[in-house]
Amino acid sequence: EDKNKLKEEYIRMQQEQQRIEGPSIITEYNKEPIEIGINQESDSLYLRPVTSRPGTP
After folding, report:
1. Cα separation of 18 and 22, whole Å?
2. Are the C-beta atoms of residues 50 and 34 closer than 8 Å to each other?
3. Cα(13)–Cα(3) distance, integer angstroms
């Protein structure tokens, strides 16, 4: 019961995060994979290394 609730909450948070960040593309910069996207709330561009993505080793 609790496990399912946690899972639903996690999925909801992920969806909220995706909604705020909008579409992103992953490209390589100096041989490092990097994610480029637009934050829907501030309408500004963001860059981040792909390795910092939650859930990736």
Report:
1. 6
2. yes
3. 15
